[in-house]
Amino acid sequence: MIKKLHNSPSLFSSLSDMLNQSHPLYKLSDKIDWAKFDTAFAPLYSRNNGRPAKPIRLMCGLLILKHLRNLSDESVVEQWSENAYYQYFCGMQEFSPVAPCASSELVHFRNRIGEKGIELIFQESIRVNNEYDDYHHHDTAFIDSTVQEKNITIPTDAKLHKKIVGKMLAIVHKLDLPLRQSYTFVLKGIYRDQRFRNHPKNRKKALRADKKLRTIAGRLVRELKRNLGEQSLYDELIERFEAVLSQRRNSPKKIYSIHEPEVQCIHGRRIMLIAGQTCVALFHQRSLFKLWNSLASSAASA
């Protein structure tokens, strides 16, 4: 059941009379269309059954404050009871020294409204932002680029060849294709020889194992390509495997990851990053758009 906020004027001094009307949160609270949230989220509550829930404006206001101030659920609930502007922003008429709700109720509210509800709150923030930006930044685009970290391991040729062998054998077993040799025991010996490669005594043995692993990976790719035929769902993956096997130390446009082929080696001033470069464009014209493009060419990060 929904609990409503009573906006009737108080006989005593209210927050609207006590606070500075030039404060950003005071102005923002008057610009946001809170009735839109009540209309959209009211059907998610029971009208007559259960204990009255927290007001919708209170929960939406806490979510907005959480992202405005970059706070956790616990911090925004704790600071709400100490900040009069927070309380006025959430629709309170009088100052309350107690916490508005438990931090877990924000989690339940996010689960209740779902992804569409979060998008509705975000769209309203865009609308409020554009009232200012459309006037001051009409037909203006802000463009920037940054380096985006990728969830990959440190790339080495031996690791890539080992992944190729594993994926090839998985495809063979999945499709039940014939295989002249599974290399089960051979691969165990190769992986054993590749260990402790930094030790001087094991260096040459590890290099021989790397070369043999690359040969086996090439054999499996060629054999799988013959068995699958010309038209296959794995054509793109096989082409990527062939590109990895054919690349050398100084090859241009190297592939550093099987599942993230767009990853690049970006040289900075003192460091070298294996990551993706992303371009962000913000347009202030009626609505706000974000374009995320992974740059294909390597560029030096500032």
Automatic annotation (TrEMBL):
Pfam families, sorted: DUF772 (PF05598)
Organism superkingdom: Bacteria
Membrane spanning stretches: none
InterPro entries to which the protein is assigned, alphabetical: Transpos_IS5-like, Transposase_InsH_N
Residue span(s) of domain Transposase InsH N-terminal: 14-112
Coiled coil: none
Protein name: Transposase InsH N-terminal domain-containing protein
Taxonomic source organism: Alloprevotella rava F0323
